[in-house]
Design a protein that fits this description.
Number of helices: 14
Strand content: 5-15%
Largest sheet: 8 strands, mixed
Oligomer: single chain
Number of strands: 10
Distance between the termini: 25 Å
Length: 312
Amino acid sequence: MQNIGFVVFPNFQVMGFAAITVFEVANLVAEETIYRVRLLSENGGLVRASAGFSVETEAFGRKIFDTVIVGAGMQIEPSTPGLLNFVRRATQTSRRVAAPCVGAFILAEAGVLDGRRATTHWAFARDLQHRFPLLKVEEDRIFIIDGMLWTSAGMTAGIDLALAMVEKDLGPEVARMVARKLVVYHRRAGGQSQFSALLALEPKSDRIQKALDFAKQNLRSVLTVEGLADAANLSPRQFSRAFRAETGQSPAKAVENLRVETARMLLEQGRLSMDTIANETGFADRERMRRAFLRAFGQPPQTVRRNAKLAT
């Protein structure tokens, strides 16, 4: 049985508990107790979350855990010496130490990320790099594994981190079954972007959203303004005007962004060739895909694939 210590502190953010559910469901899928999760805090007892309720915890003590996961708060606050000492000791006694979201600041403050690669919530990534210049922050990553240290992006990315742990421990099929029960993606690659082209567009009307959904489902096809307008039940002229007004982009640019995002995901999964990915995402050939990647990321597809392998 693997003991997991989940560290909380005053004003911790409860989204981290979603990662705990991954281990709980893994036990159900495996039909045995593989993981035992214990809530830890510096002094034990009740610890109040940022949402206003409190949870019962055990004091750090001298217990040794297979995995230690440091929770995150809504704000960046200095850590206590006791918490920092516990983190330092955990890196000497545990198989892995993880910090979703801004929990990475605690690892960095403890000095254990010096010389390492890490990520955090995109909104705090530059602050993390500025405060701790000895680590390398990669702000556009879902999670990063550097040796025994795991960090992830914010909020729900902790689920991806936990699923990756289950996959390493129990194999991809168990992780896939856990994800299915949680109704989440089996695995967003560690190098996958924290940003979504669909979320960035944020259309205000159902008609424009319907056109975007149609485009996402038909990326392999030729997507014209006329075809998208038909999906939205608008004339091409009405559609183009409404689309730009609601998204700030032309339909052609939005389609390219959707294609690039999907191609990037396929590249990071590492199973398909460049030519196949270009065809599947509607670029038709590798050169058109390469030019689109340079516009979007400033680097070619080969570099994106290589970085994704390094991130995991």
